[in-house]
Amino acid sequence: MHCNSLTSDIPNNRKVNKSLVEKAGESVQWTVTEIQSLLDMPFNDLIFQAQQVHRRHHDANAVQLSTLISVKTGGCSEDCGYCPQAARYHTGVENQDMLSIDSVVTAAAAAKAQGATRFCMGAAWRGPKQRDMEKVTQMISAVKALGMETCATLGMLKPEQARQLGEVGLDYYNHNLDTSPDYYEEIITTRNYQDRLDTLREVRNAGINVCCGGIVGMGETREARAGLIAQLANLDPYPNSVPVNHLVQVEGTPLYGTAVLDPLEFVRTIAAARITMPKAMVRLSAGRREMSEAVQALCFLAGANSIFYGDKLLTTGNPDVQQDKALLDKLGMQSLSASS
Ligand code: SF4
């Protein structure tokens, strides 16, 4: 077959989708329908387009490594339906007071020795109390002194708290939108979508980079996944770092027993995030341990370029560090340096 006839044979809907992909890189708003059209593309076309956008803005064989530590575990007053740390669910997670600064610094130094460039500190709070802020800011300063990038996820922030974090030079603040506005109330009722957007605004106002993503596989529709990506991509500016989590089902949480999402649908979500937020670091986050190496490789092909590294996430498991090194070697991928 002559190659011209290949071009003229492209169905109209695929030509439309191609022009959507051409939006990538422009400073534009995305509609949910447009993002759903991306998610609806033939899989190979979607991955090809995502990979092209990826290569325009990133080293396609590099991955940023972050390590996450829980600095205060369990006993949270919120009702996030996926979370084993909510006090109201019986999941076997033991409550733990805030870790000492020394033990956090020791963990950060160990993560650095393993190749992590960013150290994320998470606390199971609705938001920090003012009395927690002193210890948290000292922790951030101590980890920064090791030459690592710092990230914190502490729940909702008041303007003054965001300012305090900005003053000690916190590099990133993670606060996820979790899902689309329409599906949100199925998952969380103790805070609303606007609360989340307000915290993100305070983080930006304090000059801290925004790390913001969501969770898929919570029983949402493809349209809801498109709705989440639209919210993220339309933040002004879109987040520098976009964690895409695959629900880890924990017994005792309301979402335990949810129908498991097809892994290829997860890969599609990564691709849509890459196309609509071309310069962001798209992070393959929770749920990676449950993914085969082949699915992880497809996620990298679809534009994921950041992973959590270390044997544990906040309370759920993560692939073993040696296993990760072996996978990256197999794929010929290298880790990115700290400023990337
Ligand atoms: S996700 Fe965060 S805010 Fe929600 S219950 Fe868990 S620790 Fe609390």
UniProtKB/TrEMBL annotation:
One of its GO terms (biological process) is biotin biosynthetic process. Keywords: 2Fe-2S, 4Fe-4S, Biotin biosynthesis, Iron, Iron-sulfur, Metal-binding, S-adenosyl-L-methionine, Transferase. PANTHER family: BIOTIN SYNTHASE, BIOTIN SYNTHASE, MITOCHONDRIAL. CDD domains: Radical_SAM (cd01335). Binds 1 [4Fe-4S] cluster. The cluster is coordinated with 3 cysteines and an exchangeable S-adenosyl-L-methionine. Binds 1 [2Fe-2S] cluster. The cluster is coordinated with 3 cysteines and 1 arginine. Homodimer. [2Fe-2S] cluster binds at residues 120, 151, 211, 283. Pathway: Cofactor biosynthesis; biotin biosynthesis; biotin from 7,8-diaminononanoate: step 2/2. Its cofactor is [4Fe-4S] cluster; [2Fe-2S] cluster. Its EC number is 2.8.1.6. GO terms for molecular function: 2 iron, 2 sulfur cluster binding; 4 iron, 4 sulfur cluster binding; biotin synthase activity; iron ion binding. This is Biotin synthase. It is an enzyme of class 2 (transferase). Residues 61-288 form the Radical SAM core domain. It catalyses: (4R,5S)-dethiobiotin + (sulfur carrier)-SH + 2 reduced [2Fe-2S]-[ferredoxin] + 2 S-adenosyl-L-methionine = (sulfur carrier)-H + biotin + 2 5'-deoxyadenosine + 2 L-methionine + 2 oxidized [2Fe-2S]-[ferredoxin].
